Amino acid sequence: MDKPCILSNECLSHGYPRVKIAGEYVWQHRYILQLKLDRPIKEGFEACHLCNITNCIEPEHIVLKDINTMKKILELIIKEIEVAEFVQENLPQ
Ligand SMILES: [Zn+2]
């Protein structure tokens, strides 16, 4: 990421800025990603922040991610935490 974050605090909801388009609120990061892709976000995909800053609207920081892949990664992280906790609890004192 060469470009710095562009932060927006417009109509924040759950930490994500929204913008009113044709009388309806839409998530700014989703809207920007759709403009970037020049098509709607397909089902099963999500607009994700590479910078992990929910109110960043820099188009280079917003990417398309497949939800199933994200779920798998999360499951692996949770498993790793469980293994780490198990090891911690079962270490000889
Ligand atoms: Zn950013």
What does this structure look like?
A hairpin with a 2-residue loop joins strand 1 and strand 2 (24-27). The chain has a domain at 18-66. The strands form two sheets. A two-stranded antiparallel sheet has the order 1-2. Strands 3-4 form a two-stranded antiparallel sheet. The chain has helices at residues 28-37, 67-90; strands spanning 18-21, 24-27, 45-49, 62-66. It is elongated. The protein contains two helices and four strands, in the order E-E-H-E-E-H. The protein is an alpha+beta fold. Bound molecules: zinc ion (ZN). Zinc ion (ZN) binds at residues 5, 49, 51, 53, 56, 58, 61.
Task: Estimate the mean pLDDT confidence.
Answer: 93
Give, in order, the helices and strands.
Answer: EEHEEH
Number of helices: 2
Q: What fraction, in percent, of the residue positions are helical?
A: 25-40%
The number of distinct β-strands equals 4
Strand content: 15-25%
Question: What global shape is seen?
Answer: elongated
Terminal Cα span: 45 Å
- Which ligands are bound? zinc ion
Radius of gyration: 18 Å
